TrEMBL record:
Origin species: Niallia hominis
SUPFAM superfamilies reported in the protein's UniProt record: HAD-like
Membrane listed as a keyword: no
Protein name: Cof-type HAD-IIB family hydrolase
Keyword list, A-Z: Coiled coil, Hydrolase
Coiled-coil stretches: 168-195
GO molecular function: hydrolase activity
InterPro entries: Cof, HAD-like_sf, HAD-SF_hydro_IIB, HAD_sf
PROSITE patterns: COF_1 (PS01228), COF_2 (PS01229)
């Protein structure tokens, strides 16, 4: 039995988000109840801040958000920290992605994600029907939404502050090849790469991850990792689960994630597993 935390950090995809990319009203309500009782509840997600509103119920509120795998932190809509990918690295990676025909989305702060028009043909080809069996429905739906209105197709890169790159491939062989390309590139310029499924990889600033973002958020609230719970389900949650004193894995998490955790939810993300877990422990 885990001790009672002061702070709870919740992953989104595969954790409070079901596979239709929605947070249930029940999950919102338990978060509201816990905050009224004095718990601090935060989101720690690979998603950018601008992606959150469309997948949560009306009136959804938490004490803060750690977004883009630790690249930024927000209280309400106000950023309290932001890291940015250097423009030269952004340009170099896009050239490499073009060479290997890898689907990409670049996330500027405060603007729609960007994919260049000259790459549109092969990017669109990667998300052609039918959906590959091994691609999760939530990730597939997100890519469909992206190409149908979320991506701002540009002729050139605009802006100078970028929270992350997201890369996708419809085959694991293709994305694994791309990961090897990124590993070679890291020998020239350092950055962090993180995955949340077998078909994607994301790129952030070197030495940034969910744990570093959580540490910065905790410091803002004068809290410590010793009094913190984290709930997650995938590889981009590993540093978070290793950092907090009360790591919890989702029932739908793979075994290597469950091995890190001290507790595992009884139910999956499609069964309101987080809501059930938090209710059973703290209500």
């Amino acid at each position: 039995m885990l001790q009672k935390p002061k702070a709870i950090f919740l992953d989104m995809d595969g954790t409070i988000l079901n596979h239709q990319n929605q947070v249930s009203l029940k999950t919102k309500e338990i978060i509201d109840d816990l905050r009224k009782e004095g718990f601090f509840v935060f989101i720690a997600t690979g998603r950018s801040f601008d992606e959150i509103t469309s997948v949560v119920p009306e009136g959804f509120e938490v004490d803060g958000y750690v977004t883009s795998n630790g690249m930024a932190g927000y209280i309400g809509k106000e950023p309290i920290f932001q890291h940015t990918l250097p423009l030269q690295l952004v340009e170099t990676i896009i050239e490499k992605a073009r060479e290997y025909k890898v689907y990409y989305e670049l996330f500027p702060y405060g603007a729609s994600r960007i994919t260049l028009n000259q790459d549109k043909e092969y990017v669109m080809h990667e998300i052609r029907e039918p959906k590959p069996e091994s691609v999760g429905i939530n990730e597939w739906l997100s890519r469909k939404e992206a190409i149908n209105g979320k991506i701002d197709w540009k002729d050139t890169i605009e802006g100078s502050k970028f929270s992350k790159f997201y890369f996708f491939a419809r085959t694991k062989e293709h994305i694994n090849q791309w990961k090897q390309v990124l590993e070679e590139l890291r020998k020239e310029v350092d950055f962090t790469a993180s995955t949340s499924s077998g078909h994607n990889v994301e790129v952030m600033v070197a030495n940034v991850n969910k744990a570093t973002g959580i540490k910065q958020m905790l410091e803002k609230f004068s809290l410590s990792a010793k009094e913190t719970m984290g709930i997650g389900d995938s590889d981009n949650d590993i540093q978070m689960l290793q950092f907090v004193s009360m790591p919890v894995a989702m029932q739908n998490a793979p075994e290597h994630i469950k091995e890190i955790a001290k507790e595992i939810t009884e139910l999956t993300c499609d069964e309101d597993g987080v809501c059930h877990f938090l209710t059973s422990k703290f209500k």
